[in-house]
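Weekly sync, protein design subgroup
Attendees: M.S., D.O., the rotation student, P.L. (late)

Item 1: inverse folding check
M.S. brought a backbone from last month's batch and wanted to see whether the design step gives back something sensible before we order anything. D.O. pointed out we never logged the input encoding, so this time it goes straight into the notes. Structure tokens as presented (521 positions):
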């Protein structure tokens, strides 16, 4: 089948965004799915007495964000993020309270990541989007300088000339989909657009038209049945148990052992004295916005987690991993730290340290490694972490452990039961062909031992899919499995048979944002 290249593919996840050209085997850019917003006060023009001392507030957009670098007074705004307040028990989740599209963040993320304007705001002349090629000192940048910026962030594409394929969450939302189309066509002047659900793109990456897709992402777990290249919206389920939940559990365990987790931008020397830090004034980063501290801490936790975790597969290891976690209560943690509770300060999602013991200094920088069940921190501190290494990913399989996660996991029943519920609903509707293949994708699927454990729990247990023979499909390479949604978009948008599916600008001008409902599945 003939392949057509040059279209753009963007996969926006809760944590990272992947950008690149169709036909390529991997994305060209991996960026955080958020922007930074800094409020600036600019003095008003004129010297009249009534204007004396007054100023206007402007907004500075910062993208991409490097959370290893400290930035004062910068609020982090994610582009597309889920809210799990609607996930109660086994009730179907309504999309509207789950995903929120922040229009400014989405627009800047797409524009800058595609056009390549790193650390320079994109502007408009009339209906034209252009790169700001002027240095802060007022001189015009040379073509070579502009090219270097493009190499650092973005792919130097022309949104008006190249079609754009955009991934979207599996749970359908007409409002979010149409708002994304409106921004892309009206503000960014995209020439052609297609939106596709992430589960469908994962199927395309593995050459399947029907499968049950299990996406283990940062924000949560998604189970989506795909039949004849259509995602069955009524049977899609999502749970707030994923990479972020593991990071939060790791944070609670470390804080419970007096090992505070600092943001990745924090720097301490080996001679740093121990100081007490209140929740209101965390360390020497008083001017850093709480959202920036939170994202930076999550980066530290993610870094440690990726070097630590492995999935238990031996029955004895599984039994040990599923033992309850003994965590101190929030009041006990606060007493150990000598500060007020997080709830009392209004920052329940942020845990700030009160001291910096020598054994915790390694959490601030460097790399971590695990050998023989021992986690060695960069300063040489060795922590016995064999049980912790398997217990973090075990929250995907054991409902009893999910209660240890902040928020309680929204009533998550465990992966086997969650898949069984979807399989029963699909079988009732007569779509047994879906259950012939299970596709495993997402960042958490790359944890060592995850594929083998999922195969044992789901494929080798005939009761999961009603006695039907099932195959587990997972790309061998961890990087390909992590980015399989983007790879599926790259394949789909390069097929010659797909070119008639694009929503053109002419169709948008005739039908409005509703055109994506009519042409995108």
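Designed sequence read out in the meeting:
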């Amino acid at each position: 089948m003939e392949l057509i290249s040059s279209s753009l593919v963007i996969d926006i996840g809760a944590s990272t965004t992947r950008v690149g050209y169709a036909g390529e085997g991997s994305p060209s850019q991996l960026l955080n799915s958020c922007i930074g917003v800094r409020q600036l006060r600019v003095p008003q023009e004129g010297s009249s007495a009534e204007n004396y001392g007054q100023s206007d507030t402007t907004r500075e957009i910062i993208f991409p964000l490097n959370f290893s670098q400290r930035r004062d007074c910068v609020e982090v705004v994610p582009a597309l993020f889920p809210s799990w307040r609607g996930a109660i028990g086994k009730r179907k989740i309504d999309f509207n309270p789950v995903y929120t599209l922040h229009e400014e963040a989405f627009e800047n993320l797409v524009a800058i990541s595609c056009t390549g304007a790193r650390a320079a705001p994109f502007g408009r002349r009339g209906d034209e989007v252009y790169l700001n090629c002027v240095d802060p000192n007022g001189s015009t940048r040379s073509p070579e300088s502009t090219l270097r910026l493009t190499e650092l962030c973005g792919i130097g594409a022309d949104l008006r000339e190249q079609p754009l394929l955009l991934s979207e969450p599996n749970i359908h939302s007409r409002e979010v989909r149409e708002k994304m189309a409106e921004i892309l066509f009206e503000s960014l002047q995209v020439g052609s657009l297609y939106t596709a659900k992430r589960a469908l793109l994962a199927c395309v990456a593995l050459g399947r038209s029907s499968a049950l897709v299990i996406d283990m992402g940062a924000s949560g777990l998604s189970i989506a049945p795909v039949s004849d290249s259509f995602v069955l919206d009524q049977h899609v389920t999502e749970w707030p148990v994923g990479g972020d939940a593991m990071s939060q559990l790791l944070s609670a365990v470390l804080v419970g052992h007096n090992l505070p987790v600092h943001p990745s931008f924090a720097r301490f020397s080996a001679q740093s004295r121990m100081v007490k830090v209140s929740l209101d004034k965390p360390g020497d980063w008083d001017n850093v916005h709480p959202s920036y501290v939170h994202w930076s801490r999550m980066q530290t936790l993610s870094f440690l987690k990726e070097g630590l975790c492995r999935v238990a597969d031996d029955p004895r290891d599984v039994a040990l991993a599923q033992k309850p976690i003994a965590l101190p209560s929030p009041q006990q943690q606060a007493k150990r730290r000598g500060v007020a509770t997080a709830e009392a300060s209004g920052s329940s999602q942020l845990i700030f340290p009160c001291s910096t013991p020598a054994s915790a200094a390694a959490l601030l920088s460097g790399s971590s490694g695990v050998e023989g069940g021992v986690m060695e921190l960069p300063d040489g501190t060795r922590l016995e972490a064999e049980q912790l290494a398997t217990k973090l990913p075990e929250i995907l399989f054991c409902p009893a452990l999910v209660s240890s996660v902040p928020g309680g996991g929204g009533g998550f029943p465990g992966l086997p039961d969650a898949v069984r519920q979807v399989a029963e609903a699909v079988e009732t509707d007569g779509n047994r062909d879906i259950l012939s293949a299970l596709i495993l994708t997402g960042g958490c699927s790359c944890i060592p031992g995850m594929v083998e454990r999922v195969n044992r729990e789901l494929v080798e247990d005939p009761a999961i899919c009603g006695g039907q023979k099932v195959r587990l499909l997972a790309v061998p390479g961890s990087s390909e499995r992590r980015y399989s949604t983007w790879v599926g978009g790259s394949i789909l948008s390069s097929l010659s048979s797909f070119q008639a599916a694009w929503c053109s600008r002419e169709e948008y001008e005739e039908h409005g944002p509703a055109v994506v409902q009519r042409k995108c599945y």
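Discussion: Confidence is low (pLDDT under 50) at residues 86-97, 117-151, 269-282, 336-371. The two ends are 22 Å apart (CA to CA).
Action: P.L. to compare against the previous round before Friday.
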